[in-house]
Amino acid sequence: MPVNVNVGDVVRMRKPHPCGSFDWQVTRIGADIGLKCQTCGRRVMLTRHDFEKRLKTILEHATPPDEPPGSLRGNPSGLL
Ligand SMILES: [Zn+2]
Fold it and tell me: Which CATH code is given to the segment(s) 10-60?
């Protein structure tokens, strides 16, 4: 399953950077994924395949994921 990430998202990897951080910010999406270490600021590029293999979880979405309309507020169509 393809991973849905966007520029600005913060992701956690399975293995730590040499500086000890597991967390990276996505700086670029394309054929390769650009990442910036949240602790030391180092930038790396991974192929999408490598990125998906190393990704553990997405910590923070820069933009909220798509939600079906009305899903958060119950059933507004019944109010009026
Ligand atoms: Zn680092």
Answer: 2.30.30
Tens digits of per-residue pLDDT, 64-79? 656 666 655 555 665 5
Determine the distance separating the centroid of ligand 1 and the alpha carbon of 69, expressed in angstroms. 39
**H/E segment holding residue 32:** strand 32-37
- Whole-number Å distance, alpha carbon 39 to ligand 1 midpoint, is 5
Domain boundaries, the chain: 10-60
Q: How far is the CA of 32 from the centre of ligand 1 (A)?
A: 19
